[in-house]
Design brief:
Layout lengths: L2 E3 L2 E4 L6 E2 L9 H11 L6 E3 L4 E4 L1 H10 L3 E5 L5 H10 L5 H10 L3 H13 L5 H9 L7 H5 L9 H12 L8 E2 L2 H12 L5 H11 L5 E2 L2 H13 L8 H15 L14
Helix pairs in contact: 1-2, 4-5, 5-6, 8-9, 9-11, 11-12
Length: 267
């Protein structure tokens, strides 16, 4: 029998506790250990369900286990991943990656693919861009959509990978100022457009991107790509105009879609 301390239990039996499927990945246990060493032990209880799955306090559990300290816990019968998400949402503890990992572990196929894509491309491309491309929209994806478990991929995995492979192949000169993510949005449009010769665009970009100084908005990003594409080229393509049309159509087709970056722009 574990020792009862006030309204919580105390134990040194670490083996009885389990990680709740879908609970967030551990990434700052060391920080908690250092805090305990520096400021002392607050003896804050973790929350578990009747199966001794940790609903809240996974980081604290690992830190106290590593330090050989007792575990203080309270039992909340019937608690599961929904309660875990609700608790962490209200206390602002979870990031979007935690939600994606949670739903992926519970078998949500769109989240499984999204997690795979982020793991593969996040060192090359912004995660917000990866999510937008996976959803098949030119708009940013609202955080609430991911947190509620209703995120859906807009096309198949092969097509998404093809787009990400293509746009991540473009090099960005170090001297470019501003939001380079916007350029990737335009590259993505060009990849899908029947008007654009993607091989020509890539070659032109690699030869002439040194001419770019900065990008501050999506309108300028589209104009920059258009300028480089048409540089010394007989067949002029108005990429900025075509991008604006496509962005408006894509955003209108996605319920709850975020901003495309064209609002209040006069092209």
């Amino acid at each position: 029998m574990d020792k009862i301390v006030g309204n919580k239990y105390e134990t040194y039996d670490y083996s009885k506790f389990k990680k709740l499927l879908g609970n967030r990945n551990l990434n700052h246990v060391k920080a908690i250990i250092e805090s305990i060493k520096t400021y002392g032990d607050l003896e804050t209880a973790i929350l578990v369900n009747e199966k001794f799955e940790i609903v809240d306090g996974q980081h604290r559990f690992d830190a106290r286990k590593e330090l050989g300290l007792p575990i203080f816990y309270e039992i909340k019968e019937g608690f599961g991943i929904k309660e875990c998400i609700a608790m962490n949402t209200s206390s602002l503890n979870w990031g979007l990656e935690d939600y994606i990992n949670c739903y992926a572990e519970y078998g949500y196929k769109d989240y499984i693919l999204l997690r795979k894509l982020e793991n593969e491309y996040s060192d090359k491309l912004p995660k917000s861009l990866i999510r937008s491309i996976a959803a098949g929209t030119f708009a940013s994806i609202p955080n609430s959509k991911i947190k509620k478990g209703v995120f859906e991929c807009g096309t198949d995995e092969f097509q998404i990978n093809s787009i990400l492979e293509y746009i991540s192949s473009f090099s960005m000169p170090k001297k470019i100022r501003g939001n380079t993510k916007l350029l990737y949005y335009v590259f993505r449009f060009c990849y899908e457009s029947e008007l654009v010769d993607n091989t020509h665009l890539y070659q032109q970009w690699e030869k002439n991107n040194c001419r770019i100084e900065g990008v501050t908005d999506i309108k300028q990003a589209a104009e920059v790509v258009e300028d480089i594409y048409n540089y010394r080229c007989k067949n002029t393509i108005y990429i900025a105009t075509e991008y604006r049309k496509a962005a408006a159509e894509k955003c209108a087709a996605i319920p709850g879609g975020g901003r495309s970056g064209w609002e209040n722009e006069d092209v």
